[in-house]
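Hi V.,

You were right to ask for the full record rather than a summary. Here it is.
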Amino acid sequence: MLIFVLFSILCLFFLSLYRNFVPFTMKSMSKKYTTVIFDLDGTLMDTLADLAASTNYALAQMGFQTRSVDEVRNFVGNGVRKLIERAVPADTTENQLNEVFAHFRTHYAAHCKDNSAPYAGIPGVLAQLQEQGFKMAIVSNKPDAEVKQLNSQFFADSIRVAMGENEQAGIPKKPSPEMVAEAMRLLGSAQHECLYVGDSDVDILTAQNAGIDCLSVTWGFRSAEFLTHHGALHFVDQPSQLLDFLK
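Predicted structure:
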């Protein structure tokens, strides 16, 4: 009986230590972040309608079958060139592909803001992060000109570094870590200070390649099940939870 009582007391003692230690540990882990690097499409903004519209405009110019919004959803993530490669018929020639891509780029440059908007809650979260002193950037596989255009209109008050795909300048697109490394350099942040936030498997792999932590969002273009299958470890289901994660 005495042994049982002593054992029970020890269990209660260690349980008390655990309850006090775990929140402290979690808080300490999240406190290390000074910098948040965001994906754009499917993370900060719902851009799917405009991407689908420009894709279908380009396909129609060549007489090709158009695609549903859900099909386009599954095509995005690896840059707009890959989006068009996935959208065209299987027997499309290289010259035809180049024409479709040119039509897409022209149309999307003029219409990337027609229906695109930040997800509900995102502007307020960014404003609070800025007030708390976080440095923020956008790193996206969307063309650099459109990334800067959208950031200028919607996020300029909070995000001062915005980078899109610009391989002509010698910086490979995601999941290469080089755009993330350039963003960190511009912000003056070290790897251990940075959190990458995105909605896709490409974002998970980008963060891994860059040697930084990744937080996956479930309101974007990929499901939680898909993200889990591709190695996601941490999730948020709504923008406000990002603030809780960073407390």
